[in-house]
Amino acid sequence: MAYVIGVDVGGTFTDAVLDDDSGNLVAAKAPSTPPDYSQGVMDVLAGLAENLGEPLEQMLATTHHIAHGTTSSLNALVMGNVPPVGFITTQGHRDSIFIMNVEGRYLGSSPDQLQNVLGQTKSHTLIPKRHAVEVVERLDRDGTVVVGLDEESVRVAVRGLLDQGVRSIAVSLLWSFKNPVHEQRIRELVHELDADVFVALSSEVSPRIREFSRSSTTIMSAQIGPGLRSYLGTLEERLRAEGLTGPLLVMQSNGGAIAAAEAPRTAISTVGSVLTGGVVGAVSLGQQLGHRNIISTDVGGTTFLVGLVVDGEPVRTSSTVINHHPINVPTLEVHAIGSGGGAIAWIDAGGNLRVGPRSAQSVPGPACYGAGGTEPTNTDANLVLGILPESGLLGGRKALDVRAAREAIRTKIAEPLKLSVEDAAAAIYAIQNAQTGDLLRKTVVEAGHDPREFVLYAFGGAGPAYCASYAAEVGVRQVVVPLGPVASAFSAYGLASSDIVLAREVSDPGQMPLPAAQVQHHFDELEATLAADLERQGLRYDRIEYVRSIDLRYTSQLAEVSVTVPEGALDDGAMSTVAKDFERRYAELFGEGTGFSAAGIQAITFRVRATGILPFDPQLPKLADASGPDPAEARSGIRKVCVDARHGYVDTPVYDYRALRHGHVITGPAVIEVPTTTVVVPPGMSGTVDHLGNLTITTESRS
Question: What is the rounded average pLDDT of the residues 378-390?
Fold first, then answer.
């Protein structure tokens, strides 16, 4: 028997789930420990070992691998907490990253920010100009060397950067995605001068056409690469010292894992790792429950995350935006706002009550944690409303101070708005539901989907307290709340469920229909590279699956659409099918009649995603059957709870999830207490416990 462990490091809590490959799951939760997140990982692993009833050393020695999702990379970029980075590019092209293709003026901005011209900031540059240098070299659009690399100009440029204290360098040369020979030589020259300097090459990080986005992706990868290398190195050393013999894997934005030793080389691929675990877990659970259209929602301590699963597959995208700069890496499409359990309630200059995006995080935490926090948060409001037990969280190990929560709400919200503390708490709860419902609309409805055709999965420490209300906001009829051992650690369950997923891509623009042999050559080369990459991970796979795709666009248009390409040998008929699939998909995304076939179709980027299927498939254990639908045996008491200001505080049954059985039906209003979360069934709704211990809440009667 071997264990698989998933560890999800969030801004507030670190969650872990262990699967023993025999149908047993164990979970643990511990506070995150910034800036040294590795301590929080060790703490949560110690909690797993305690729950398992084994010494930590024995548990780790029996572990096949640990899959780790980290928030450190994303946080470092968002907060600008990155080291100085040097940038080397082709002579005459240094200013491309400062001009930003004009995109940097608007990417990532909301409509109201774009309309406020005077309030816009122009300081979006990634690095100071003194750290951007040019070298003599030139390739043409076919990758042919036109001007050879002047190695002395490289040495002079690198010495200048090192003299300024730069310890990480990004290299992005013109047309290097067609021929990486000059970039690779520059890395050799850098390491001849200083072997410890971190070097990121655009031909490895983002081998795509479009100079600005390729360079910005490479620079950001160089910004987080050294920190990721140091963090993972420290963590792996600590794990080895405690007995881990299997590999440490790191979750990537594309929904799959990679060996920790490999991750820093393309560090930017890990920025969304902590966001994608829940989506991967939703796919796994959906297969067990027969759900193919899923809205995955995760309300943690800091953020509210939403991802989609359509027809059994997570929705993917080829790029994202951070700090106004494009990131060109394949990723699961996950939308996020700062609206977690620790989101701070505040009053803006116009006297309006707002919730988030600032968070109390794990330090100092909500006021009710008694760790120095004085700002009112969602968690404080839930305690005042009776949703959270005054006895505390984590089975009573995390004490909660209701007086501190009331004081924070009274001084910061209630008195300024001339409300009672109870009404102010109810207002905070209502705003949280409204803004999470708004993000659901953006993610589902604005993408062209009907929410009534989806099942919503809700998890995270705070998600089950709100899910029924925000699902009803958009008309979702069924909500599944995973209970049992993965109640609030569902993202960690997703990490434990993940396989090894690697992607390779290359841009080679051409007019369709392309010769089938040319396309086949690109895919064969990408698949051969991926096969070697998978072997380097040091793991055994049950099988390997390859998925091919091409990004296409109408000639002279910017919008590219990714189209899947069939397996096997390609012929002219297959290429014709690819073109037709592009036109159909374009019409689905942008509307019938918006395409322009007469302009022609261009193929831009060729991509292959390889999945190494690991010999583990964590399944939720089956729950014993109830003797009948009445859950009276699980009722642990009654307390006054307010989940709807129109009804006020009402006597509400409270249930202990450990006593729930398959077939129990819980009628709202009701609260279900789990050591790591609390589930709310609002008035007018009901929930049924399924064979795996999940609670399915039906919202139809209210919506």
Answer: 92
Q: At what angle do helices 72-79 and 273-289 cross, to 10 degrees?
A: 140
Question: Please, which residues bridge with residue 31 across strands?
Answer: 13
* Strand duo 132-135 + 138-139: pairing: unpaired
Residue 598: count other Cβ atoms within 10 Å of its Cβ: 7
pLDDT in tens, 431-441: 998 988 888 88
Q: What is the pLDDT of residue 603?
A: 94
The span from the CA of 691 to the CA of 584, in Å, is: 40
List, in order, residues 6 or more apart from 281 with CB less than 8 Å away: 296, 459, 486, 490, 491, 493, 494, 495, 497
What are the pLDDT digits (tens) for 492-503? 888 888 889 899
Express each pLDDT in 631-675 by its tens digit. Answer: 999 999 999 999 888 888 999 999 998 899 999 999 989 999 987
Buried/exposed 360-373: b ≥16 CB within 10 Å, e otherwise: bbbeebbbbbbeeb
Q: What count of other Cβ atoms lies within 10 Å of the Cβ of residue 293?
A: 17
Amino acid at 436: T
pTM for the full model? 0.83
Three-class secondary structure of residue 397 per DSSP: coil
Start-end of H helices in 167-317? 181-193, 202-205, 211-241, 273-289
DSSP string, 267-307: GGGGTTHHHHHHHHHHHHHHHHHT--SEEEEEE-SS-EEEE
Burial zone of 276 (CB within 10 Å; 0-12 exposed, 13-18 middle, 19+ buried): buried
